[in-house]
Amino acid sequence: MSALIELVGVSVFLGGRLVVEEISLAIERVQIVALLGPNGAGKTTLMRAALGLAPIEFGAAQLMGDDPMLLSARARALRAAYLPQRPQSIWPINVEHLVALGRFAHGAAPDRLSPPDQAAVDAALEACALTPLRARRMDEISGGEKARAHLARALAQHAPLLVLDEPTAGLDPAQALSVADILTRHAASSGAVLFSTHDVALAARIAHQVVLLREGRVISTGAPREALTPQSLEAAYARKGRLEQIGDTLVAVFD
Q: How confident is the prediction for the chain on average, in pLDDT?
């Protein structure tokens, strides 16, 4: 099975500073990969480099077999839906129109949706529990609802790969678990997910692979139980930590 994203020895400099150092990673369909690490570990830069949005100094990246730096914005959007940290909607559009922007790469506009485009928007609204809010303006809903609206826009894009920068930041536990369920369903439907998070327990819960970073370097990588050892957690966060099993759920405990 060919990888949707493949990074080989990728290093990135920003402002003359090395922020990602010789990282290799491959993500295939039905996989969920979580990037973990403290602030400044290089998670966002690594995701942007994988999409051709940050320059790679050394190494190489491929997005579904092509150099992402050489892809047009539309071609990239048909392969990967990217949700940055704290996305903004600068116009007072309603929720449905924001979600419909995900169809732009398919040639649609929010006020000119074909039946397939409308079906994609409806499905994304339903998946994110936003159908009752579809007519509400973005400046009239809560922060958590805004986060779900932006996630719905990414889902409506119908790209096989979701690349999400801290998609559960600022969400309450119930909303975060709902997002986790959405990501799991996307991967199970022959998609793939690459996301960053500070929620170690969430990564352990849904990711097939975690990549634990510190200062642009990989501390450990692999299945959560293998990669998130007490030694690797302390190396990454400079605090003693461990995974514990409570019922059917893995939780992260830091001392």
A: 94
